[in-house]
Amino acid sequence: MDLSSIVGLIMGVVALIVGMYFKGVTPDALMNPAAIFIIILGTMATVTIAFPMSELKRLPKLFKILFTEQKLGKDTDIIKLFAEWADLARREGLLALEGKVAEIDDPFLKNGLSLAIDGQNADYIRDVLSEEVEAMEERHSAGAGMFTQAGTYAPTLGVLGAVVGLVAALKDMNDIEKLGHAISAAFIATLLGIFTGYVLWHPFANKLKRKSSNEVRQKMLMIEGILSVLEGEAPRVIEQKLASYLTKEDRKKILGESGASGLGEES
């Protein structure tokens, strides 16, 4: 479970409810069927128009990604693995790594190492793996784009809902008290549109982009590690090279364990 997504969602709802309470508005004011219908169905309509059905089918999976902790291997463990492979390859040759392929769970890493063992050159391996990363980035971008689309139009649909509510309210101005309640209810659509757009959809899009960025970074680390092993670089050199992908704390751990030094502090 992605704790930050859950906590952030709860904080957003609490902020809205508590803010309404301090303003003297009861939470039941949000239970406006017309406003909910316009915002929710209208937002779904904008996304449906903007994206093909093949991408819309991925929405349930995207929600699962949002609220599930990202399962990536530790970068430090991956770097240590490359250092071990490099040491074995330098001592016994690249074919000695053939037995290691079956032990790899990550399909991307397994494919890259298999290409290296099969004798493919560095340029070919980089091209194949980079194209796979680019295709993945495109899929991830489309997924985040659906939430960005929803976040862009939900507030505008809130204005539309308010206009519809005002039209209904101004049809009968004889009862001033009733008119006041009708106008208040009309702006619930605006409230819901802004809340869903800027507390739900845009943050959801940003979370997907961040998770995509983390996965891309790790795959780029893998590409460099595979090519370094292929080129016969020393384990300590590989650790120094790949340490640039790490946080400052993990970088110090790797370089400290290898006895390496000389890389600048993280800015």
Automatic annotation (TrEMBL):
Residues 102-218 form the MotA/TolQ/ExbB proton channel domain. GO terms for cellular component: plasma membrane. The chain crosses the membrane at residues 5-22, 34-54, 150-170, 182-201. It comes from Rummeliibacillus stabekisii. The keyword Transport applies. Its main location: membrane. GO terms for biological process: bacterial-type flagellum-dependent swarming motility; chemotaxis. It is found in: Cell membrane. This is Flagellar motor protein MotA. It is a multi-pass membrane protein. Belongs to the MotA family. InterPro entries: Flag_MotA_CS, MotA-like, MotA_ExbB_proton_chnl. It comes from the Bacteria. Keywords: Cell membrane, Cell projection, Cilium, Flagellum, Membrane, Transmembrane, Transmembrane helix, Transport.
